[in-house]
């Protein structure tokens, strides 16, 4: 009896200290420059690609958003970058150049979803995926002109 209790306690202890790992059913979390994005509907995995609502990701990347109901096109614009995707089409356009998508833009529960990595990388951002925590981290790239304007002034007092 005592051996059985000790075995159960040991098993419970092992389970309590084992690292917690997210599985495929865990919600996907998206961060842009350290800020967690909020979505009406959780991001989804489709064909090993994360798809998210277009407005929050476009706006977090500094893009203005557009939607053309008649043509089912979603657009995102920022200085130097124009992205156009059409619902259920695997061809998107970045600055007028055709790009193949692994997963097309789509409408789900009244929301337009777009492939996260494609959108982020088209703006020049760096994207990383952590399978264990189901987390996407996006770091935007600051141009040299912007960086120079943000750098603190250095004063030589010697």
Describe this structure in words.
The protein has 4 helices and 13 strands. The protein is α+β, with helices and mostly antiparallel strands. The strands form 3 sheets. The protein has a 5-stranded antiparallel β-sheet, with helices on one face. The longest helix has 16 residues. The N and C termini lie far apart (about 80 Å). The C terminus is likely disordered.
Number of strand segments: 13
Strand order of the largest sheet: 5-6-7-8-9
In the predicted model, the low-confidence regions spanning at least 5 consecutive residues are 4-23, 150-158
Globular, elongated, flat, extended or rod-shaped: what is the shape?
Answer: globular
* Mean pLDDT over all positions: 81
> What is the distance, rounded to the nearest whole angstrom, between the alpha carbons of the first and last residues?
79 Å
Q: What oligomeric state best describes the polypeptide chains here?
A: single chain
Biggest sheet features: 5 strands, antiparallel
Number of helices: 4
Strand content bin: 35-45%
Classification by helices and strands: alpha+beta
The SSE order reads HEEEEHEEEEEEEHEEH
Radius of gyration: 22 Å
